[in-house]
Design brief:
Blueprint (H helix, E strand, L loop, with lengths): L9 E4 L2 E4 L22 E11 L5 E5 L3 H18 L3 H7 L4 E5 L15 E5 L4 E5 L2 H14 L1 E3 L2 E11 L5 E7 L7 H13 L4 E5 L1 E2 L2 E2 L8 H6 L7 H13 L3 E5 L7 H6 L20 H17 L4 E3 L8 H4 L2 H10 L4 H18 L3 E5 L12 E4 L3 H10 L3 E3 L11 H5 L7 H4 L3 H4 L2 E8 L9 H5 L2 H10 L7 H15 L9 H10 L5 H7 L2 E2 L5 H5 L11 H4 L5 H14 L5 H25 L9 H22 L6 H14 L7 E2 L2 H10 L4
Helix pairs in contact: 1-2, 1-3, 4-6, 8-11, 20-24, 23-24, 23-27, 24-25, 25-26, 25-27, 26-27
């Protein structure tokens, strides 16, 4: 992706125990709530629960195909990992109490808009799952897995009847393998997670200025000279396509053009528009050789990827390179092309015809929406919902990614608030125009993400986006979302996703300590800056080691989020006794952590620069404890002291060592709730 676009452990002090909750741990089961995500379109609770034990048996009826057999085996594998019961083998031989009925096949090449609905009825006596085709069966099996829970009686699923279908037909995740090559095991476990939360489009981006990472048999110099030795072979691509289809996921390739293409020119410099060899960043749209090359390349890739859609990028072209090239300027003068945008529009039109000749539907980012663009071109909006609405009014289908940039370290709540049809720009669309809004995609750009920490950048926040794209529009309650997100986050571990393990492993490496408790306390309340500020605070290159604390911690601090909720209840006079106790315990923990952590930080070059952040946490906590005591005792405070504390808390909330101390604003809320003399 483009550079501009690219967010309980036990602690002892002496003999005083303080219990904290690990981020994203599932809360205790709430009997009257549905711990399911995405929430279904319709559900009716039943009576009792269906027990899962060694007698569990599952059968497939109706239409049969290998994909259904594979789905059953994956289902049993995950259920076995969650329960510890070896159902992966016994459940096929046992007398069935779970019946899966499939009416008929889905299309041989999965298409947008296929029926994905299912009906799931769970009672004390058994389970019936039915669907029109395998896609619905895949979704229904995942719903059952999310509902599974541990109870005093054993593992069970609550009795319920669910009638479910998606709100939008396009629910995607983009993984950028252009900036940094993403290894196949990482791709696969993220596809597993996509299946779990009912995402159905894997948008796979292969090339950027930094590298070209897919094999081309027609143009082998691309992988030989532009991949750095890391690229997906044709057979590996086919493997991922089959792996995705097994999980009800379509694979859309993206090859960005005419810009973000510097890597192409390492192999084929004649395609570049720059006047200095090796310094070009854009293709030359005026030479016939460019289109001859792209015609052959697109034909090759179109045969490799069976999906109907083919993404050609088209974003963020810097027209300076064209406008400073005499040859291109002369071409524009002769052909009456007024500026770089008009020249790109001509390029886009030619590429669209090439894509159409290969029986594919072209996709592109906002910039390709120009006057005269064919209506079958699909627009992916990164600039905002206005672009999406403009495309719909123009007769083009589109998907939303603005607001779903998960590399920008925004909270799950911020992503959850974004809706492809929820903006004022969409309010005036007609029903026909709204139908052209197909859904959306979360986007994982890898400028400053590695194989190691990609999982905790994508998950669990992307589950909130998955719910927005699947569930009814009126599913909006943020507290409910976070409670259910905790449940699903824990379960994703059974699919092989490593988001809950990454930070702990990286902290151990950073500290050289097998149990880095003090560093963990600090890590639990910091997170990377949002947006593109992180790139401004730290120099990143293609080979920068991503092994610092801002690389290790998740984009959203769960501990800080929960603490902030407690603080707001305290400040608003709505806190429980437990709220006061938890706030006190956390603040004491943070106050005393610096004394324990400070001597340990100097042992590793990876932690030495964290000393001021640790010290700030302690000082913030001291201020918080005093404010808490003042509020508990209704004690007035000196106005000058209060103002000095607020100034310090404002400073402590600013980025330091590429980290945000997320509890500082919450303590400021406590201080502001006190009264002065």
């Amino acid at each position: 992706m483009p550079d501009f676009r690219r967010a309980g452990f036990l602690w002892f002090f002496g003999f005083f125990p303080i219990i904290l909750s690990l981020p994203w741990r599932a809360p205790a089961q709430e009997p009257e709530s549905l711990s399911l995500m995405p929430l279904p379109s319709q559900s009716e609770p039943g009576s009792g629960e269906f027990l899962i034990d060694g007698s569990f048996g599952i059968e497939l009826t109706g239409y049969a195909e290998p994909r259904l057999e594979n789905a059953r085996q994956r289902f049993l594998d995950v259920l076995s990992r969650e329960t510890g019961i070896p159902l992966w083998r016994a459940a096929v031989a046992n007398k069935p109490n779970f019946t899966v009925h499939t009416e008929g096949p889905s299309l041989s090449v999965q298409q947008i808009g296929e029926d994905e609905s299912y009906r799931l009825k769970i009672s004390m006596g058994g389970v019936q799952l039915s669907a029109a085709n395998p896609l619905g069966v895949l979704h229904g099996l995942q719903t059952f897995l999310v509902l599974a829970r541990v109870t005093p009686k054993g593992f069970s699923v609550p009795a319920i009847t669910i009638e479910d279908r998606p709100r939008f037909p396009w629910r995607g995740l983009l993984i950028d393998s252009g900036h940094r090559f993403v290894r196949l095991p990482v791709i696969k476990r993220n596809l597993n997670a996509m299946e779990a939360v009912k995402l159905n489009v894997f948008h796979w981006r292969f090339a950027d200025d930094a590298g070209f990472h897919i094999e081309s048999k027609r143009f082998p110099l691309l992988q030989e000279k532009a991949s750095g030795g890391f690229y997906y072979t044709e057979e590996e691509v086919k493997e991922i396509i089959a792996y995705s289809r097994d999980r009800g996921i379509r694979v859309i390739p993206e090859f960005d053009m005419p810009c973000h293409t510097a890597s192409w020119f390492r192999a084929y410099p004649e395609l570049g528009s720059g006047q200095i060899p090796g310094q070009s960043g854009a293709m030359d749209p005026t030479r016939e050789i460019t289109y001859t090359f792209l015609s052959a390349f697109i034909e090759e890739m179109a045969k490799l990827f069976p999906d109907a859609f083919f993404h050609t990028g088209g974003d963020e072209c810097d027209f300076h390179e064209w406008e400073s090239n005499p040859h291109i300027q002369e071409y524009m003068r002769v052909h009456g092309i007024k500026d770089g945008a008009a020249l790109q529009a001509q390029f886009t039109a030619k590429i669209q015809r090439i894509v159409a000749q290969n029986k594919k539907i072209m996709m592109g980012w906002d910039e390709v929406l120009q006057p005269g663009i064919p209506n079958d071109v699909v627009i992916q909006s990164w600039r905002g919902s206005k672009s999406l609405a403009d495309a719909a009014r123009n007769g083009n289908r589109g998907i939303l990614s603005s607001g779903y940039y998960i590399d920008l370290n925004q909270s799950a709540a911020e992503h959850y608030a974004v809706d492809p049809l929820g903006d004022s720009s969409a309010a005036s669309l007609t029903p026909e125009e709204k139908a052209r809004v197909l859904g959306g995609e979360a986007t994982m750009w890898t400028d400053i993400v590695s194989d190691e920490n990609l999982d905790n950048r994508v998950w669990p926040r992307t589950v909130a986006i998955a719910e927005r794209l699947w569930s009814p529009e009126d599913v909006r309650e943020v507290d409910s979302m976070y409670r259910r997100l905790g449940v699903v986050s824990q379960k994703l571990g059974y699919y092989g996703v490593r988001h809950r393990l990454i930070m702990e492993e990286m902290l151990e490496r950073m500290s050289g300590d097998a149990d880095p408790v003090g560093l963990r306390v600090l890590a639990d309340v910091v997170q990377p800056p949002k947006g593109y500020e992180r790139q401004q605070l730290r120099n990143f290159g293609d080979f920068t080691p991503l092994n610092r604390l801002d690389d290790a911690v998740p984009p959203e601090s769960e501990t800080a989020r929960v603490f902030d909720g407690i603080v707001r209840r305290i400040a608003g006079g709505k806190a429980t006794t437990e709220d006061w106790q938890q706030a006190q315990q956390w603040l004491v923990l943070w106050r005393d952590n610096d004394a324990r952590l400070k001597p340990l930080l100097t042992r590793s070059f990876l932690t030495q620069d964290l000393a001021p952040v640790s010290r700030n946490l302690s000082e913030v906590a001291i201020i918080g404890l005093q404010a808490l005591d003042d509020l508990q005792n209704n004690r007035p405070v000196n106005a000058d002291v209060r103002n000095r504390n607020i100034d310090f808390l404002n400073a402590a909330a600013k980025p330091q060592v590429v980290l945000l101390l997320m509890v500082a604003p919450s303590v400021e809320t406590l201080v502001k709730a006190t009264r002065t003399n």
